[in-house]
Amino acid sequence: MSPPSKSQKPCASTHDERERWRHEIRRAMQDQAQKQEIAKQEFVRAMQGQEQERLMRENYLRHQAPRMVKASWDLYESRWNQLTTLAPPKENSLRFVDIPWPSMEPLPTPTETRSPSSKYKTLPPSALQIASVLNQKAIGNFLLSPYHSEGKSGKSRLRAALLRFHPDKVRPWMSLIQESERNAVIMGVEIVVRCLNEEAKSA
Question: Where would you find this protein in the cell (predicted)?
């Protein structure tokens, strides 16, 4: 058999390059598939871990709920008693977070800013922060919880809260609020009254 001609050598070389190219593509695809499988397994493990944490947290809250709600309610009543009868604070001394709001949602953390005179000033909560604490669901869950005020109907609880946040009842202690926070407190009171009226319709 005669040796391959010079014109056949480039074809053989091209064939080898194509095979090498196909092999590299297959290997790259296999590597990519392996990485995707590893990422998928890690994602599944992370989701399982999050689900387990969620179940543990829900189980904890379910068992702790009665005590937590009762303690929050006792504090709510105590602070209202202090605000209105026992030892009212000095004028211009209270902030939004000092008001006993009917909600167990975490109150917004006060933020500070530096004024041109290099003095730090506490900013009042924003409307979004207020709405995250005071909304119909949060207020209804707190006031109508079965873990406090045993023997009182939902209507009587809502009526008592409406009396507390009625404008005529709020006006006497509004002077206790820092001037920079009064608009936020007024907004909070208006939201509470509106939510209480909505709850009363379905109570």
Answer: Nucleus
